[in-house]
Write a structure and sequence with these properties.
mainly beta
């Protein structure tokens, strides 16, 4: 009887210790292991993520590095998840799977925040009414790193367009900060061309949001909203260079350099801050 009681006590102790250390073992394994993303040649390594269907779900404090061609897999920062780090290291996700507004390549859900770090050359292409990086209101995105991001939308035959990096349609967008990197957005298909900020769909929608550019080289068709809005703000500390066709926003707090093609009547507008402007009509290039 005494032996039996001692055996049960030891067994309970072993089970208790196993339960205590199992989360540590799990996290440790996630940290050192690398796995393929589905049946693609892309890989992911890190912590606090799981793959469900074609979605890579990230929770608070997730830290993942993705490389290779993930085809039609999408990254989702789940609702209210904070301090998420996404490292794109020569990563591609350009195959479009799903219906309208259903192929956001990176999507921040309500209340979430994420930092995207760029290494090498990375490609993200979204489909109809989707975003390469969806940043709705009440979310925050930071982009840094010395790599390149080529982000685009193939909008097909839809007349409604979301931002390449930003919100759905004409809805307000969240906080978008670019500290470094080479960022290029492109748009094809029906509907008004978009870029970084908000898209175009709801007539008379009240667009708002803040874009902060602290560095890097940004090439985009539209910086801000698709219609003039003094509630869309551009800020930054002066180390960013922007090349854009249309800049419908309030840029009084931006001290960087903008090269803008504004219409057929003028070749280029370039200015550093709000007080330096130069217009060049055709023939005086």
């Amino acid at each position: 009887m005494k032996f039996r009681n001692n055996f049960i006590k030891v067994l309970r102790l072993v089970i208790f210790v196993s339960l205590l250390i199992s989360p540590i073992i799990s996290v440790y394994a996630d940290t050192i292991n690398m796995e393929n993303i589905g049946n693609t040649d892309a890989t992911i390594k890190g912590i606090n993520y799981k793959i469900e269907g074609n979605n890579i779900l990230l929770s608070s404090n997730a830290n993942v590095e993705l490389s290779g061609n993930a085809k039609n897999y999408n990254i989702v920062v789940t609702e209210n998840s904070k301090d998420v780090t996404i490292i794109l290291n020569n990563y591609t996700s350009t195959e479009i799977d799903g219906g309208y507004n259903n192929s956001n390549k990176i999507e921040l859900k309500e209340g979430s925040s994420a930092t995207v770090t760029l290494i090498g050359v990375n490609n993200l292409l979204a489909g109809n009414e989707s975003s390469a990086i969806r940043v709705p209101v009440n979310t925050a995105l930071i982009i840094n790193g010395e790599g390149t991001l080529i982000a685009g939308i193939n909008n097909g035959n839809s007349s409604a367009s979301s931002a390449v990096i930003g919100s759905q349609y004409s809805n307000p967008f969240g906080s978008i900060t670019i500290n470094s990197g080479n960022i290029t957005t492109h748009y094809s298909g029906v509907g008004d061309t978009t870029g970084i900020g908000s898209g175009d769909y709801y007539t008379g929608a009240e667009m708002s949001g803040v874009i902060t550019l602290n560095g890097g080289s940004i090439h985009t068709d539209v910086l801000g909203s698709n219609s003039d809005s003094d509630k869309v703000f551009l800020e930054g500390n002066g180390n960013a260079v922007v090349y854009a066709d249309d800049i419908p926003l309030n840029s009084n707090q931006f001290n960087g350099i903008i090269m803008q093609n504004i219409s057929f009547a003028y070749k280029t507008t370039s200015y550093a801050g709000e007080n330096s402007k130069e217009l060049r009509p055709p023939g005086n290039i």
